[in-house]
Design a protein that fits this description.
6-stranded antiparallel beta sheet; mainly beta; 38% strand
């Protein structure tokens, strides 16, 4: 499935893209408590696409791509390097990223985003797939100057957590194998990043297991 969240005349719905991206089959409910087709079809040109998740808790892992560690000339982390973005950072695909007034060096980072569909606590890596709804695209926008100043003192919030610094979507894709997905980031149509999730130091199931060891993951995270 390719699940999309959208609004028609100010009313929000979940739906599923039909073959191609021109039409959405409207659903009742949501993907976390259950969805059912209504039979109503909306034209994409008549709707406003929204972030696929409403007020998500966003957990990030820094230095988890082998090539990125090589690029930054850092040691392999002894433990996963985690950070969070506030829910107010989330915007939809195609929405405007607000450039900080005092921003000096703002970077994009194309990312695979794992969408939790079922509460997870003390989950084994082999069980992680049972708690994953699907996957979407994300842009981990970063204010590098602020990030470096924070990181020097062991913190990381404002550099990555400003409003609009987490574009997501547009769809949640289910049924994917996250072990070797291609990830391409384009800036003004030009390829700026090209990677594979096969390059992850800790794979998706390991990341879910690690987080759930210390905190409860909730549907919509």
């Amino acid at each position: 499935m390719r699940i999309v969240r959208y609004a028609v005349d100010g009313v929000r719905h979940y739906g599923e893209f039909e073959d191609g991206d021109a039409r959405i089959v409207r659903c009742e409910g949501d993907p976390f408590t259950g969805m059912s087709l209504t039979g109503r079809v909306d034209e994409v040109g008549d709707v406003v696409l929204l972030p696929p998740l409403e007020r998500p808790r966003i957990f990030g892992f820094a230095y988890n791509y082998a090539t990125h560690i090589d690029e930054t000339d850092r040691d392999v982390p002894e433990v996963p390097v985690c950070f969070m973005k506030p829910s107010t950072a989330a915007i939809g695909s195609g929405d405007s990223i607000v450039y900080p007034v005092d921003g000096e060096l703002i970077h994009f980072e194309g990312e695979l985003v794992v969408v939790i569909g079922k509460e997870a606590r003390h989950v084994k890596a082999s069980e992680a797939h049972e708690h994953i709804l699907g996957y979407t695209c994300g842009n981990d926008v970063s204010d590098r100057i602020v990030q470096r100043r924070e990181s020097a003192f062991g913190t990381l919030l404002i550099g990555k957590g400003q409003d609009t610094f987490a574009p997501l979507g547009p769809v949640i894709a289910t049924g994917l194998d996250p072990s070797d997905l291609s990830l391409t980031t384009r800036v003004n149509g030009v390829v700026a990043q090209s990677a594979s999730t096969a390059d992850l130091l800790l794979a998706v199931p390991d990341l879910v297991a690690y987080l759930s060891r210390y905190l409860t993951l909730l549907p919509g995270d």
